[in-house]
Amino acid sequence: MFDINTLAAFYAFSGGALWLLAFLLFMGGDKVDTRANRWLGAFYCILAFNFIQLFLEGFGIGGDLLVHVLELPRWAMLPCLFMAVSHYTSPSLIRKDWIFHFVPWIMFLMFSLVYVIPDLYNEQNRLPELPSWIRFAVRYFFFGQMVYYWVTCFFLLLGHQKNVKMMASFTENVNMEWLRYLLISVLFLMLIRFLDLLNLHITYIAPVLYFLGIMMLAYSTLTQKSIYAIEKYQPRELEGSASKKGSTERLTAEQVQELKNMVMRKTIDEKMYLDPGLTLSILSGKVGISTHELSYILNNGLGKSFYQFINELRTEEAKLLLLSADTKHLDMLGIAIRAGFNSKTTFYTTFKKATTLTPKEYIKANAKAV
User: Of these four, 114, 280, 293, 364, which has the most CB atoms within 10 Å of its CB?
Assistant: First the structure.
């Protein structure tokens, strides 16, 4: 069995891995938004300080001054994660309120520079005795901050994934599932921290669990996908929707029906849904109405999102292709592409949701009819 000091070495592994991740994000190319990468890199840097602090404490290295210096950026850690997620989900959004999220950290930094750090240079090299309310705030504010920002980040991601289906007929490269796994990894680290503080017999293996959580973070970070084709357009769409809301709500029932028929004719007669790259803006341009009007017609006239509308038409096309003698030579990926899907995964998921059958089960079920 390993002794507790040996296991504490995993804190150093975790800190080193995080600094490497931060370096890769700071020096990365144009795969994703640079600002978001830098904020995420800052989050990893500060998180690394925490693990280095735990490592030093585990081996009894350094004094109170060094430990407190490593603690200084802690309150800025979760705001950095929030800023990263905010820029990933809305790349063209310029946040003017970013400084507000760092006010608690700035206050803690000023308090430390004025009251705490000078006293650490005394002969005893000890932390000064602080009032109980300050100790309480320092101890528990960070945990409240962790919960608040994690929940906020998760809802930003859910909102993005919901809005993508209003804009695009494909989601694999724009729904940022990697970011969901990253947030789950952060939640895993938070749970370990809470359980460790509650002394639920995981203190001994906590260094290893933390290291596993860091590996999860690394995998999620390094599996980012390019998201810009739809991503950059989305915030402008959302900002404009508020200004257009009044005009779209003034449409009469007859106008909604007329526009709905026009959208259906254009989309179905010209089989525009067979284009795997079809988006809300492309279809609105073909139909001759604004994206806001098209979105309103789909949501209120058909009760569907753009994603549902297009992929249901593709599913009907796929049904015909699956039972056609002319496509017997095609495999399932060929059928999916012919029907307008851009991947076999989307094809299978959408088809089964619509028919409760997989494509192969659908062929078997309708073999006699054919």
Answer: 280
The per-type count for the chain, helices as H runs and strands as E runs, is: 18, 0
User: What's the CATH number for 253-365?
Assistant: 1.10.10.60
CA 84 vs CA 14, 36, 311, 336: distances in Å: 21, 4, 31, 35
Q: Does residue 296 have a pLDDT over 80? A: yes
Residue with tokens 């001054």: 65
236 pLDDT more than 50: no
For 158-184, the pLDDT digits (tens) are 888 877 777 777 776 667 888 999 999
Q: Select from 35, 101, 45 the least CA-distant residue to 73.
A: 45
Burial (Cβ within 10 Å: 0-12, 13-18, ≥19) of residue 364: exposed
- Residue 48: in which H helix or E strand, if any? helix 34-59
**Which residue's entry shows tokens 């200004």?**
243
DSSP one-letter string for 242-293: HHHHHHHHT--HHHHHHHHHHHHHHHHHTTGGG-TT-BHHHHHHHHTS-HHH
Residue closest to 48 by CA, chosen among 66, 26, 74, 27: 74
Q: Write the CA distances from 254 to 263, 295, 301, integer angstroms.
A: 14, 17, 11
Q: Is 279 helix (H, G, I), strand (E, B) or coil?
A: strand
**Which CATH topology does 4-231 take?**
Rhopdopsin 7-helix transmembrane proteins (1.20.1070)
Sign of the torsion angle spanned by Cα atoms 355, 264, 344, 369: positive
The secondary structure of residue 73, as a DSSP letter, is: T
State the CB neighbour count (10 A cutoff) for residue 223.
11
